[in-house]
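Example with several molecule types.
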Amino acid sequence: MNIFRFLGDISHLSAIIILLLKIWKSRSCAGISGKSQLLFAIVFTTRYLDLFTNFISFYNTSMKVVYVASSYATVWMIYSKFKATYDGNHDTFRVEFLIVPTAILSFLVNHDFTPLEILWTFSIYLESVAILPQLFMVSKTGEAETITSHYLFALGIYRTLYLFNWIWRYQFEEFFDLIAIVAGLVQTVLYCDFFYLYITKVLKGKKLSLPA
Amino acid sequence: SVNGLKHDEL
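Resulting structure tokens for the full complex:
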């Protein structure tokens, strides 16, 4: 485990906790895309099926369990507990445009044509684009709460840190996974515009708002 | 070699 991977995991975990706490403390999921959260629940479920087949470490297992459990808790809060505060009118991204192509691609480009491996590949592809409904919602409403911006930054920087982890692993362990690397690059590129706004606005104490 | 099958990351 190198420092980039560890910091990536910590930032991913922070993002998940920031979102859970934001919704729970404010008793509201305003400004949060339920569709993106649903996609993340699908991502974790399909990727971590190896919890039942493969043990890597106590760290690995506990993180997976926390990610899966918190993604379901978030979906439950948005679609059940705090349903009245969910802004479905602005959450209009068509998720089938993400699920269908990534599902097809995972059948075509994978490391091994087995059910578990195809599901893992699907989860990698789907994760790379799962934030789009959330980014679409922010661009549609033209603004995001500061706490939501922190959530998005932590979530975006996690995969960026993983890119450095993969460079490290290629250099020192001769390990590389082209599927994860390409998807990770796509995922990071999707956040670039948001990173720019976060650094130029949110870090200077302003609310993230887009020009009309 | 491509060793992507070792899924030891999160």
